[in-house]
Amino acid sequence: MWVRRSSEGPARETRNKVRSPDTMEDKRNIQIIEWEHLDKKKFYVFGVAMTMMIRVSVYPFTLIRTRLQVQKGKSLYHGTFDAFLKILRADGVTGLYRGFLVNTFTLISGQCYVTTYELTRKFVADYSQSNTVKSLVAGGSASLVAQSITVPIDVVSQHLMMQRKGEKMGRFQVRGNPEGQGVVAFGQTKDIIRQILRADGLRGFYRGYVASLLTYIPNSAVWWPFYHFYAEQLSSLCPKECPHIVFQAISGPLAAATASILTNPMDVIRTRVQVEGKNSIILTFRQLMAEEGPWGLMKGLSARIISATPSTIVIVVGYESLKKLSLRPELVDSRHW
């Protein structure tokens, strides 16, 4: 017995010494779950459900942001809260969800986005181990793929968002329905699609495509590196016992606010190009500057940040939890959260 104990004791001590630093390191550093670690079936099933819940919660602010960006000066709304109250009084809760059914088709682009992001990270890892480089390239690539699918859906849903009582906001009005009520949602959608086809042909569905790329590729490329940067900084400042999900939940909105401020000017131009039927990004920019000055480039920023803050918390917590739930069974015990 003594020999057996003496032979196992040092070995056990050695294993404990080796494991202890690893465990401490795991708790100190935020571990990133990569594509090869995931059970893909769980990842997609949970992902669609999570994305739908997020869209339901933030869509009203997306609609408000779009209307604020399109209106001339403050002709209709004086801000995010004012727009919320006026839409609610005029059209009820359903008025805050105009175009929502069409917009749900962007669930497809959402899944394409996360797939492209994860696969691109895996590809870039063969050339660089820098998390910033991987996040930057993967975020931009994912946005390029997603926007190619999203833009036609956005064009239709944005015109539906513009349907309101009284003054016409966009290029198109649902016919036979001047008050914006009484037409079934899919009837409105068909009417808008017909008007786009008649006015612009198939190209009309990709109006603002370049502006969208110039908005969302930088936004996505900037968001991911800032997200990991803020998470790492918070991790170094907080106690090791603090759950990683707390850092991530705070880092998401910080990254979203940073990216929104940097890309909002292009977002305003993109919205106007798509809704007002303009053909030139440069001319749209010049007209905006002439009419409203530099502050016109910040229109809708508060609504964008307000909608981004809760949605980003839900997205980050949901996405990180989704990846943990989708982790391959044999890897679960090796992770420390």
UniProtKB/TrEMBL annotation:
Region (Disordered): 1-23
Membrane topology: Multi-pass membrane protein
Reactions that this protein is recorded to catalyse: L-leucine(in) = L-leucine(out); L-valine(in) = L-valine(out)
Main localization category: mitochondrion
Solcar-type repeats, residues: 41-123, 130-233, 243-325
Gene Ontology CC terms: mitochondrial membrane
An example Gene Ontology molecular-function term: branched-chain amino acid transmembrane transporter activity
Keyword line: Amino-acid transport, Membrane, Mitochondrion, Repeat, Transmembrane, Transmembrane helix, Transport
Pfam families hit by this protein: Mito_carr
Any single GO BP term: amino acid transport
Location in the cell: Mitochondrion membrane
Xref: SUPFAM superfamilies: Mitochondrial carrier
Entry's family note: Belongs to the mitochondrial carrier (TC 2.A.29) family.
Function recorded in the entry: Mitochondrial solute transporter which transports branched-chain amino acid (BCAA; valine, leucine and isoleucine) into mitochondria in brown adipose tissue (BAT). BAT is involved in BCAA catabolism and actively utilizes BCAA in the mitochondria for thermogenesis.
UniProt protein name: Solute carrier family 25 member 44
Gene: SLC25A44
